[in-house]
Design a protein that fits this description.
Largest interface: A-B, 33 and 33 residues
Strand order of the largest sheet of chain B: 1-2-3-4
Number of strands of chain A: 10
Strand order of the largest sheet of chain A: 6-7-8-3-9-10
Number of helices of chain B: 12
Number of strands of chain B: 4
Structural class of chain A: alpha/beta
Radius of gyration of chain A: 18 Å
Helix content of chain A: 25-40%
Order of helices and strands of chain B: EEHEHEHHHHHHHHHH
Number of helices of chain A: 9
Largest sheet of chain A: 6 strands, mixed
Distance between the termini of chain B: 88 Å
Structural class of chain B: alpha/beta
Oligomer: heterodimer
Number of domains of chain B: 2
Amino acid sequence: MQSILKVQEVETRFGENLVHDGINLHVKEGEIYGFLGPSGCGKSTLMREVIMLEHFSKGSIELLGHKLENIKAKQAQELRLQWGVLFQSNALFTSLTVFENIALSLHEYTKFSKEMIRDIVSFKLDIVGLKQSDGALFPSQISGGMKKKAALARALVMDPKVLFLDEPTSGLDPISAREFDALIMNLRDLLNLSVVMVTHDLTSITTTLDRMAVIDNKKIVAEGSLEEVLKIQSPFIERFFKMEG
Amino acid sequence: MPNSLHLLVRHESEATIVRFEGVPNLQKLCIVQKRLQRTFSSLDKKNVVWEFDGLERMDSALAVVVAKHTFLAKQKGIEVQKQGMNREVEKMLHMAETHSHFGANHVSTKQGILADIGENSLERLEKLLAFFAFFGQTTLIFFQMLYNIRSLRWKETVFEVYESGIKVLPIVILTMFLVGVVVAYQSSSQLKLYGANIFIVDMLGISILRELAPMLAAIIVAGRSGSAYAAQIGVMKITEELDAMRTMGFNPYAFLVVPRMLALMLMMPILIFFADMAGLLGGILIAKVDLGLTPHIFMERFTAVVNVKHFWIGLFKGPFFAMLIASIGIYRGLQVKNDTQSIGFNTTKSVVEAIFAVIICDAFFSIVFTNLGY
């Protein structure tokens, strides 16, 4: 299996504050990978560095064969069309309907006819479990769970190779959260996705993740499958996984 | 080319064979889809065979395209077969067929113009009633707090006095000084024609004290503080801070509305006073430079012809303007719905409506005072 994401010796500094001190990890094609760690450990920052919203100070990040530290504007733009990002607060455009939110990239980047775009968007609405009539609604008119699904459909519209999810189940009720987990696993199988997510949700971690990286104290304390991670001696892992006890 | 998708169409004796080769990508797919459309519309055979064994990968957009053309062909009574599917292609096609809704309608249905007018009017009426309700509530709390003066939020009020009253002072003074200069300069060139230089004092005195200074101060405050009120309270509404206050038993009207209103009502006359001074200073400057009237002569004439009532009328309007500006700004803030766009919308609205309300109010005062003989 090829690696789609390689993070090597990444160091991040915000002024005096050292956030990451030599982070190493790699994500293989087709797996669901999680960034775990206590609040404020910089896992969201790491994700934002991977999706080029934040700069890192030292080290190297390689995503889908592009090195991000010296990427050219054109390659960066190409890369942006090969991933989908789901933000924690969904970040749906409030001035557009759900349908228009999903169709936006297709309108901008392809020459499909209106009819074809409509068919593709209908399909995406359906696979994330939204009704066709939901497409006509504005984000302010739908519930949190539906917003999450709509944002997922928007992230999936360009058939991305990688999907980035920032705490996808936060703010969802347990039933919706489990449904969402199942949806992600199902989509991974159907669409050959690789998924990278930041998560706190213990059930998501045990059921969906193939491998994970635990970030604590500015470093990776463990990387691997759940069994491998559980073998590592670390106060955070003890507290986090043994809570359910 | 590693990243390219080819469409090969072969016509055999019984069937048309449509073959895909390469790797799907969205750019190529647009072209392929248009060719497919042409092929299918000019189909003379009763059989179509899709061939997938040349595909290296499958993606969902291609699957949707195939599913759509299969669907359309079957509608026309054409037999469709699929060949050379590996597991991935089959899975993807199956998904596309089960999850597609060809011809689904995502556009909300349009209604007639009469229904639009009716809906709009009702909405506006509701807004107006909501504003009255807001105004009533504010007035009630306002007098309750005046009655029990200890319950007034002094800290918040003083903060607002500083924020929306004192911080605007420089811009009000500068603007009014320049307006004084401009008005004096424009009128001086006319007055010089008649040799009526001294009348510049009458003109400036009455127009600035009575109309220009209060109006201009109100417009600046509406643009600066009124809009700030709308935005601040709008954001607090979106982040549920207002709801939090309510659940903790704090009345948002007492904490947010009354302090802002009171602060502006206190500060407005003071702002108008400074605007008066700045405007007259501009006038005196031009009178000296352009018309050769010394400040001494200016002031002498000023005390002789400009009645002090004009000054008082100007100040008197202040609290009324302030009340309008503050209440419209805050009301607009409270009207913010749960999306980011409505902050911008309501902030803009608050400024436009506040300035409009101030002008209406000014016109009303103008008529009333003139008829009362002031």
